Description:
The structure holds four protein chains of four kinds.
Chain A: H1 2-13, H2 17-37, H3 41-65, H4 78-95, H5 107-110, H6 113-118, H7 120-123, H8 129-137, H9 139-160
Chain B: H1 5-27, H2 36-54, H3 56-62, H4 65-88, H5 103-141
Helix pairs in contact in B: 1-2, 2-3, 2-5, 4-5
Chain C: H1 7-25, H2 28-56, E1 59-62, E2 73-76, H3 78-105, H4 111-130, H5 134-153, H6 159-189, H7 194-201, H8 208-225, H9 233-240, H10 243-269, H11 271-277, H12 280-300, H13 305-325, H14 329-360, H15 371-374, H16 376-390, H17 396-410, H18 414-440, H19 455-473, H20 476-492
Antiparallel strand pairs in C: 1-2
Amino acid sequence: MSMMAVSVLVIIRSRNLFGVIVLSGIYSFLMATVLVAMDAVDVAMTEAAVGAGISTVLLLGALYLCKSEEAHPPKKPFLPLLVSMSVGGMLVYGTLGLPEFSDPQAPIHVHVVPRYLNEMKQEVDVPNVVTAVLASYRGFDTLGETTVVFTAGAGVVALLRRRRKGRKP
Amino acid sequence: MKNDLILRVIAKLLIPFILLFALYVQFHGDFGPGGGFQAGVILAAAVIFYALIYGLADARKVVPEPLVESMMAIGVLIYAGVGVAGLLLGGNYLDYFVLDPNPVRGQHRGIFWVEVGVATTVSGVMLKIFYMFADRGKVDEE
Amino acid sequence: MNLAPHLPALQVVVPLIAAPLTVLLRQRSVAFAVALVASWLALAISLLLWWQVANTGIISYAIGSWPAPWGIEYRIDRLNSFILVLVAGIAALVLPFSRASIESEVAAQQHYLFYTMFVLCLAGLLGIAITGDAFNIFVFLEVSSLSAYVLIALGRDRRALFAAYQYLLMGSIGATFLVIGIGLLYLMTGTLNLADMGQRLASVQGTRPVLAALAFITVGVSLKLALFPLHQWLPNAYTFAPSAVSAFLAATATKVAVYVLLRFYFTVFGESAVFARLPMQQMMLLLALAGMFAASTIAIFQTDLKRLFAYSSVAQIGYIILGLSFNSVSGLTASIVHLFNHGVTKGAIFMLLGCVALGVGGTSLTRVQGLGKRMPLASFGMVIGGLSLMGVPGTAGFISKWYLLLAALEQGQWWLVFMIALSSLLAAVYVWRFVEAAYLREPHQNTTNVAPTPWLMSVPTAILVLAIVYFGLDTSFTMGTASEAAAALIGGSR
Amino acid sequence: MTGATTSMTLGSHFTYFITIFLMVAGLFIVISRPNLIKKLIGLGIFQTSVYLLYIAPAKLIGGTAPILSNAFTVYSNPLPHVLILTAIVVGVATLALGLALVVRIREAYDTIEEDDILARDSNAEDNGNAT
């Protein structure tokens, strides 16, 4: 995890966009590894496919169409730093009150979820609980998610389709 | 890259396996990690791989663009259609219990079709986006 | 088969299914027909739902037949049935309008995708308003936002692209803040259902994660609703978007965001928690006032009418938040009524601007000189809309401002009454800028030809302008629903 | 809070601190960098960091991935996994759309630096008023 922090630091410093994109791919792989360690195999698999795969391809594709160097040295980072630090501070304040790591009595482990783990066998009978929750219990979220993907696809078509006669000014 | 024999042969050998893997991820999602979304991504990746080795024009012949655009829409329709089927059979929206006399089998059936819908849309969208970006590239080259 | 119990699901699913259909059919007239049918059905469903809720109380609908905390629940009470009517109603009017309007503003090849995006945006907004599940709000927020970015980027001007990009960044940051807030709440309560969350939150009220969640949700939603210091994306987005899009988004998108804020404050956190633990009341009051004055002042100096009225939107949101900050039934009622009335007013104004843009080729103040003679009806409509923004009796805007004043008096805050009156004066100044150009200036010689307005544009616009007057005279629908909704929010939340 | 519990809390919240660091870094990139592509990368990091905020608390030490089998009895919490799957998909959708916009911006303005774009717009406006 500390490696992730390092790669992000380099991303901030570097101005070569190609390097930044490769690094963000590596970052995604590291993230996927952490996720496996956290037992989130489905999420890890998706993150590896999306973060390291699709995102990198898309970014490189877009980069190919644009310039690969950041032009200006960034200026006056004090205000942005202040804003993002205060967000971080708020979050530190918030997370310090959260239940301990891996506390089995934490609310998320005692409410709602037990039904997924204990009764799913009778109700849905699919060994992978993530699939069961994703497609059945919270199926409407996934319908929304599919719609989001569709929106993005149709949106990209709307934006990038070549115009036969002259482009927009 | 188009004329590199070794690459072409390797690609020919690899792509069927990638497709097979996509199907495995799709249908094994009930038992292990995976599901419609991941399968869709892998499926699209296989075609993108093909396009990189054999060129965009060849890929377009194998997977034509109107098909891709329809796939985006059909996937959502399949998913939403499963929901409507639940309605027609007397349940609530997206109710899989009523899809089969045996409620648990109904759940299986519902999840299966829903995952098919997700995979269709995802692979369609990913491919379409790839085609779109690739097309723009040509404009700049000209 | 009886469809009546399934109306909540159909409310969202009908436009959602229409979207892929428009892509499949591709023909733009067919796509238009599909979108039109979907949006009118959505309006019919929303009216039926409103009627059902008025008669039988809260409707709860379990999607997939999974009971509430496990599955996703649709929960409709007075408040969101009201929002649904607003969103679906505006969409049903803007959609026919858009057909002729985008003719000159969007490349013909993209028209069917315009309708796709429009119904997706509609489905997203309805989905946010209707759902009783915290994470579902986020998913549908993204559906509506992504389609909104595309709709804005379809504008002719190249600045539309950059406006859409900025909106995308701000919107995504806002949505991520919302996810962080929801995540913290989930970690403390173990549930995602809003009502369930509200109940279980009682035992952990005032702990640090909950306070942090409150802060994150407030900031995230404020980005979306363009509360004063976080409004930078809005003026550009509304200015460069196609007119139909400006009309739709101005009337609905920010209003739905306000609804999300109300829902979290009153159903989840409970008003006592929101206003007692942090100096929220003072903060919101301050921001609302700052928004009202700063944005109105900026509006006065604009030279383009679309941008002028975009800033006026930021100012009007100040009024809504002002009512919210009173934390009283009457203040909340005023907020909810203003949310509706301002939606109607702004929708009408941006639609009129669409007609004007088509008629004289632009909306800059120099272009509209002499508009009173060249497009008398449209100018008259603009005047009515402007009067409503100022809050002149006989228009919808008067009703909400009147109740806002009453609510301020109830708090014994005389200086606020003075402030509201003063900011109305600012509104009068920027509306006067239009009146002066339209009625007191002679038109430019080289722009004498006025393109006729197609009836598909003029009829929906006229309906909405008449609605401004109607809701200014007959308040039984708006006030009735809003006061009950406000009472339920404050009284029934704990 | 006594010293001992504080240090324990700090230890057990280590994941959160890394998460927060990533989040701050991502947000900082979005706000401070003028390059449009880099902004999107920053946005990606910002969104990704949220995944950890959800997933980390779901882990139970001694538990396994939530795939039911007779060999295990303790599983990690599957619900956050589901939510984050959705969030990842939303993230990539946003990225794709953002990049499409960047490509169009680059064609329209011939630059992808925020400052240049703003400068060109204000120039165009001045010229427009002059003529």
